[in-house]
Amino acid sequence: MKLSQSFNTAIIISGLLAGATFAGEQADKQKNPMTEHGLVTIEWQAPESYRDIEASSGKQERYEQRVFETLTKSLDKEASKFMQEHQKLYLVVTDVDLAGDVRPTFGATTNDIRVVKDIYPPRMTFSYQVVDNDQVVIAGNEKLSDLGFTSASRRNQNEPLRYEIKMLNDWLNKSLKPML
Protein backbone atom coordinates (compact mmCIF):
# COMPACT_ATOMS: atom_id res chain seq x y z
CA MET A 1 0.00 0.00 0.00
CA LYS A 2 2.79 2.43 0.89
CA LEU A 3 4.59 1.71 -2.40
CA SER A 4 1.42 2.50 -4.31
CA GLN A 5 0.91 5.70 -2.33
CA SER A 6 4.52 6.79 -2.97
CA PHE A 7 4.09 6.04 -6.66
CA ASN A 8 0.89 8.12 -6.83
CA THR A 9 2.58 10.98 -4.98
CA ALA A 10 5.52 10.82 -7.42
CA ILE A 11 3.14 10.96 -10.38
CA ILE A 12 1.28 13.94 -8.91
CA ILE A 13 4.53 15.81 -8.22
CA SER A 14 5.81 15.02 -11.74
CA GLY A 15 2.55 16.32 -13.19
CA LEU A 16 2.76 19.52 -11.18
CA LEU A 17 6.37 20.10 -12.22
CA ALA A 18 5.54 19.45 -15.88
CA GLY A 19 2.60 21.85 -15.63
CA ALA A 20 4.77 24.51 -14.03
CA THR A 21 7.41 24.09 -16.75
CA PHE A 22 4.75 24.35 -19.49
CA ALA A 23 3.24 27.44 -17.84
CA GLY A 24 6.71 29.01 -17.62
CA GLU A 25 7.34 28.31 -21.30
CA GLN A 26 3.98 29.82 -22.24
CA ALA A 27 4.71 32.92 -20.13
CA ASP A 28 8.08 33.32 -21.90
CA LYS A 29 6.39 33.11 -25.31
CA GLN A 30 3.82 35.71 -24.30
CA LYS A 31 6.45 38.25 -23.28
CA ASN A 32 7.01 41.09 -25.68
CA PRO A 33 10.54 40.98 -27.05
CA MET A 34 12.58 44.18 -26.83
CA THR A 35 15.45 45.25 -29.05
CA GLU A 36 17.73 48.19 -28.47
CA HIS A 37 20.51 49.69 -30.52
CA GLY A 38 22.00 53.13 -29.97
CA LEU A 39 19.21 55.72 -29.88
CA VAL A 40 16.40 53.27 -30.71
CA THR A 41 14.44 50.93 -28.44
CA ILE A 42 11.59 48.83 -29.81
CA GLU A 43 9.05 46.70 -28.00
CA TRP A 44 7.59 44.06 -30.30
CA GLN A 45 4.12 43.59 -28.87
CA ALA A 46 2.54 40.12 -29.33
CA PRO A 47 4.53 39.07 -32.43
CA GLU A 48 2.54 35.83 -32.64
CA SER A 49 -0.43 37.93 -33.78
CA TYR A 50 1.43 39.86 -36.50
CA ARG A 51 -0.08 39.64 -39.97
CA ASP A 52 3.07 38.17 -41.61
CA ILE A 53 6.45 37.64 -40.07
CA GLU A 54 6.66 34.03 -41.19
CA ALA A 55 10.03 32.38 -41.64
CA SER A 56 10.51 30.60 -44.94
CA SER A 57 13.19 28.39 -43.43
CA GLY A 58 14.75 27.76 -40.05
CA LYS A 59 13.30 28.26 -36.62
CA GLN A 60 10.52 30.86 -36.36
CA GLU A 61 11.77 32.41 -33.08
CA ARG A 62 15.28 32.91 -34.46
CA TYR A 63 13.91 34.44 -37.65
CA GLU A 64 11.75 36.87 -35.68
CA GLN A 65 14.73 37.88 -33.54
CA ARG A 66 16.84 38.51 -36.67
CA VAL A 67 14.05 40.62 -38.18
CA PHE A 68 13.65 42.63 -34.96
CA GLU A 69 17.38 43.22 -34.58
CA THR A 70 17.89 44.13 -38.24
CA LEU A 71 15.07 46.68 -38.22
CA THR A 72 16.22 48.18 -34.91
CA LYS A 73 19.82 48.60 -36.12
CA SER A 74 18.64 50.08 -39.40
CA LEU A 75 16.36 52.59 -37.64
CA ASP A 76 19.23 53.59 -35.36
CA LYS A 77 21.59 54.06 -38.29
CA GLU A 78 19.14 56.41 -40.02
CA ALA A 79 17.95 58.20 -36.86
CA SER A 80 21.55 58.82 -35.77
CA LYS A 81 22.00 61.03 -38.83
CA PHE A 82 19.70 63.73 -37.43
CA MET A 83 18.92 62.93 -33.78
CA GLN A 84 21.20 64.11 -31.00
CA GLU A 85 22.87 61.82 -28.46
CA HIS A 86 20.56 62.88 -25.62
CA GLN A 87 17.48 62.00 -27.69
CA LYS A 88 15.93 58.53 -27.82
CA LEU A 89 13.36 56.98 -30.12
CA TYR A 90 10.97 54.45 -28.57
CA LEU A 91 8.57 52.34 -30.63
CA VAL A 92 5.89 49.85 -29.64
CA VAL A 93 5.18 47.74 -32.72
CA THR A 94 1.72 46.14 -32.79
CA ASP A 95 1.70 44.66 -36.31
CA VAL A 96 4.16 43.69 -39.02
CA ASP A 97 3.44 42.45 -42.52
CA LEU A 98 6.66 41.76 -44.38
CA ALA A 99 6.84 42.36 -48.12
CA GLY A 100 5.85 39.28 -50.05
CA ASP A 101 4.08 36.12 -49.02
CA VAL A 102 5.52 32.78 -47.91
CA ARG A 103 4.53 29.90 -50.16
CA PRO A 104 5.15 26.19 -49.65
CA THR A 105 7.41 24.40 -52.11
CA PHE A 106 5.50 21.10 -51.79
CA GLY A 107 8.53 18.92 -51.21
CA ALA A 108 10.82 20.43 -53.84
CA THR A 109 13.01 21.64 -50.96
CA THR A 110 12.78 21.60 -47.19
CA ASN A 111 12.29 25.37 -47.20
CA ASP A 112 9.33 27.45 -48.28
CA ILE A 113 9.91 30.57 -50.38
CA ARG A 114 8.86 34.19 -49.97
CA VAL A 115 7.28 35.47 -53.17
CA VAL A 116 7.57 39.24 -53.52
CA LYS A 117 4.96 40.91 -55.76
CA ASP A 118 3.24 44.29 -55.86
CA ILE A 119 0.16 42.85 -54.19
CA TYR A 120 2.10 42.01 -50.99
CA PRO A 121 3.47 45.38 -49.76
CA PRO A 122 5.32 45.81 -46.47
CA ARG A 123 3.20 47.20 -43.62
CA MET A 124 3.84 48.14 -40.02
CA THR A 125 1.72 49.59 -37.23
CA PHE A 126 3.32 51.21 -34.17
CA SER A 127 3.24 54.01 -31.66
CA TYR A 128 6.35 56.08 -31.01
CA GLN A 129 7.91 58.66 -28.74
CA VAL A 130 10.97 60.83 -29.12
CA VAL A 131 12.42 61.60 -25.70
CA ASP A 132 14.84 64.48 -25.20
CA ASN A 133 16.55 64.56 -21.79
CA ASP A 134 13.77 62.40 -20.26
CA GLN A 135 10.99 64.59 -21.67
CA VAL A 136 8.65 63.39 -24.43
CA VAL A 137 8.93 65.92 -27.26
CA ILE A 138 7.11 64.03 -30.01
CA ALA A 139 4.63 61.17 -29.82
CA GLY A 140 2.25 59.56 -32.25
CA ASN A 141 0.84 56.49 -33.93
CA GLU A 142 1.71 55.25 -37.39
CA LYS A 143 0.24 52.77 -39.82
CA LEU A 144 2.83 52.53 -42.57
CA SER A 145 2.48 50.84 -45.94
CA ASP A 146 4.63 51.17 -49.05
CA LEU A 147 2.46 50.32 -52.06
CA GLY A 148 5.19 51.32 -54.53
CA PHE A 149 7.88 49.24 -52.87
CA THR A 150 8.83 47.23 -55.99
CA SER A 151 9.63 50.36 -57.98
CA ALA A 152 12.44 51.21 -55.56
CA SER A 153 16.08 51.25 -56.56
CA ARG A 154 17.69 47.87 -57.05
CA ARG A 155 21.02 48.92 -55.48
CA ASN A 156 20.36 47.06 -52.19
CA GLN A 157 18.92 44.01 -53.90
CA ASN A 158 20.61 41.46 -51.62
CA GLU A 159 19.93 43.30 -48.37
CA PRO A 160 17.50 41.42 -46.12
CA LEU A 161 14.33 43.37 -45.27
CA ARG A 162 15.25 46.10 -47.77
CA TYR A 163 11.60 47.02 -48.41
CA GLU A 164 10.78 47.34 -44.72
CA ILE A 165 13.99 49.30 -44.06
CA LYS A 166 13.22 51.71 -46.92
CA MET A 167 9.66 52.19 -45.63
CA LEU A 168 10.89 52.99 -42.10
CA ASN A 169 13.70 55.25 -43.35
CA ASP A 170 11.21 57.17 -45.51
CA TRP A 171 8.96 57.63 -42.45
CA LEU A 172 11.89 58.86 -40.35
CA ASN A 173 13.03 61.36 -42.95
CA LYS A 174 9.62 62.63 -44.05
CA SER A 175 7.76 62.65 -40.73
CA LEU A 176 10.12 62.66 -37.78
CA LYS A 177 13.14 64.58 -39.05
CA PRO A 178 11.20 67.80 -39.90
CA MET A 179 9.68 67.86 -36.38
CA LEU A 180 13.11 67.73 -34.75
Helical content stands at 25-40%
Q: Please mark out the parts with pLDDT under 50 across 5 or more consecutive residues, or reply none.
A: 6-29
Shape: globular
Give me the oligomer status. Answer: single chain
| Structural class category | alpha+beta
Distance between the ends: 77 Å
Estimated radius of gyration: 22 Å
Q: Count up the helices.
A: 3
Q: Total number of β-strand segments?
A: 7
Task: Give the number of domains.
Answer: 2
Task: Please write the string of helix (H) and strand (E) elements.
Answer: HEEHEEEEEH
Looking across the biggest beta sheet, what order are the strands in? 1-2-3-6-7
Question: Mind summarizing the main beta sheet?
Answer: 5 strands, mixed
Overall mean pLDDT stands at 84
Question: Approximately what portion of the residues adopt beta-strand conformation?
Answer: 25-35%
Structure explained in plain terms:
The protein has 180 residues and is an alpha+beta fold. It folds into 2 domains: 1-31; 32-179, no CATH class. The chain has 3 helices and 7 strands, in the order αββαβββββα. It has helices spanning 2-30, 60-79, 162-179, and strands at 34-37, 40-44, 87-97, 101-103, 113-115, 123-132, 135-145. Strands 1-2-3-6-7 form a 5-stranded mixed beta sheet. β2, α2 and β3 form a beta-alpha-beta unit. Residues 6-29 have low confidence and may be disordered.
